[in-house]
């Protein structure tokens, strides 16, 4: 099959949801709207002209204050619904790559059972403190000074299937923290307990008023339970690149070339680098600052600034795209900074597609699963994958041919 596009660049704006999903009630997320509430917080001063001209406001049920719909977007726009049983990054990315999570993973609203905690303590030789659902910044501010004195491990969770271990970098070296997290990963792979992600959360700072979580975070994700689109692409000889926490989310499977991000802007530096290479294939990027720094902390102003900063960098990407390049922008879930709690929110996610070679623009509608994203990538490269998802490649008129 002739490739329609030689290179596809997928950018996942981590947690940038676009309104409550069809099943939001099931998750307690009725009324959530990440983009809408960020726009409201900015009172009309949210300026994201590049996302706007791609059509980010065009398929929403409600307007984004300050970001109007455009009569003629430069590309194609739509939104996608999640069919996975959760609303975590792992669920969203796996589904995007053709592997929906059908069985809910374990969550721990009352903290982790003694059987898990004791194994972590016995392995590490350190006491566990915390052990409850909590905001990471809050629990580190509360327990961090004690942790520095005692060398204990701060263990906490959220509404998602995650076990997070925080420690000061000067007290517990990164290698030791990672080793402990790897052990924790090994004891929650089922059958009794199955946890989606173990997250190392190192921090620095002299006291509770100055603690800062560092970019040395590392996610130890459940091994994919089946073959993903990345695996299929790699096996077919299509070069695959993962930027940001993509490598962590897929446990390195299906990825030829990986880059760790220090921040969103560092991630965009990596995107620029890969675009400048003599590269053919699929590059998937995750930009996590929206989620980790602003969504969970319920900071709509910071979230909006991160969107505007990304939008400025997006202009360079749009200008550097070649006629046989395709850009796909989406998200993996919501994390509404204007909503209750501190957890992810079950929302639709935007879907934006653009290539300089497009001869028309229009709506991609509401896609029935995130897997439509991966199905489109597979069809472009002539690769067969799992029977999930519907490609929208032929809806992108006309596109370059090889």
TrEMBL record:
Pfam families given in the database record: Metalloenzyme
Gene3D superfamilies: Alkaline Phosphatase, subunit A, Phosphopentomutase
InterPro entries in the record: Alkaline_phosphatase_core_sf (IPR017850), DeoB (IPR010045), Metalloenzyme (IPR006124), Phosphopentomutase_DeoB_cap_sf (IPR024052)
Domain Metalloenzyme: 6-383
Subcellular location: Cytoplasm
Catalytic activity: 2-deoxy-alpha-D-ribose 1-phosphate = 2-deoxy-D-ribose 5-phosphate; alpha-D-ribose 1-phosphate = D-ribose 5-phosphate
Record keywords, A-Z: Cytoplasm, Isomerase, Manganese, Metal-binding
Keyword Metal-binding: yes
Leading EC class: isomerase
GO cellular component, one term: cytosol
Transmembrane portions of the chain: none
Co-factor remark: Binds 2 manganese ions.
Chain positions recorded as Mn(2+) 2 binding sites: 291, 296, 344
Family designation: Belongs to the phosphopentomutase family.
NCBIfam families: deoB, PRK05362.1
Function (record text): Isomerase that catalyzes the conversion of deoxy-ribose 1-phosphate (dRib-1-P) and ribose 1-phosphate (Rib-1-P) to deoxy-ribose 5-phosphate (dRib-5-P) and ribose 5-phosphate (Rib-5-P), respectively.
Protein name listed in UniProt: Phosphopentomutase
Species of the source: Lentilactobacillus curieae
Highest classification ranks of the organism: Bacteria, Bacillati, Bacillota, Bacilli, Lactobacillales
């Amino acid at each position: 099959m002739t490739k329609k596009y030689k290179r596809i660049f997928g950018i996942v704006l981590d947690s940038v949801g676009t309104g409550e999903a069809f099943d939001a009630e099931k998750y307690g997320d009725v009324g959530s709207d990440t983009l809408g509430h960020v726009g409201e917080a900015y009172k009309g001063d949210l300026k994201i002209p590049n996302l706007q001209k791609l059509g980010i406001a065009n398929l929403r049920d409600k307007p984004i204050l300050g970001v109007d719909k455009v009569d003629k977007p430069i590309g194609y726009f739509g939104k996608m619904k999640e069919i996975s049983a959760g609303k975590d990054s792992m669920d969203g990315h796996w589904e995007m790559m053709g592997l929906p999570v059908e069985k809910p993973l374990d969550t721990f609203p009352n903290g982790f059972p003694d059987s898990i905690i004791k194994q972590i303590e016995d392995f590490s030789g350190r006491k566990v403190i915390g052990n409850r659902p909590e905001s990471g910044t809050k629990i580190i501010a509360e327990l961090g000074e004690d942790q520095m004195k005692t060398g204990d491990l701060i263990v906490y969770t959220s509404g998602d299937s995650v076990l997070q271990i925080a420690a000061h970098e000067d007290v517990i070296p990164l290698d030791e923290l990672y080793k402990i997290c790897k052990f924790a990963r090994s004891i929650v792979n089922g059958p009794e307990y199955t946890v989606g992600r173990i997250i190392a959360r190192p921090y620095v700072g002299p006291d509770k008023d100055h603690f800062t979580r560092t970019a040395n975070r590392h996610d130890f994700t459940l091994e994919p339970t089946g073959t993903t689109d990345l695996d299929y692409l790699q096996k077919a000889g299509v070069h695959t690149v993962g930027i940001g926490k993509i490598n962590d989310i897929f446990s390195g499977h299906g990825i030829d070339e990986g880059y760790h991000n220090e921040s969103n802007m560092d991630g965009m530096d990596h995107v620029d680098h890969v675009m400048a290479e003599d590269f053919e294939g699929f590059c998937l990027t995750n930009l996590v600052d929206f989620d980790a720094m602003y969504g969970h902390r319920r900071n709509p102003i910071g979230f909006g600034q991160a969107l505007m900063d990304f939008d400025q960098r997006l202009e360079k990407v749009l200008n550097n795209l070649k006629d046989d390049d395709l850009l796909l922008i989406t998200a993996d879930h919501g994390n509404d900074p204007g909503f209750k709690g501190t957890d992810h929110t079950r929302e639709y996610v935007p879907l934006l597609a653009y290539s300089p070679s497009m001869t028309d623009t229009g709506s991609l509608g509401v896609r029935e699963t995130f897997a439509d994203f991966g199905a489109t990538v597979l069809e472009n490269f002539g690769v067969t994958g799992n029977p999930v998802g519907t490609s929208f490649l032929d809806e992108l008129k006309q596109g370059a041919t090889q």
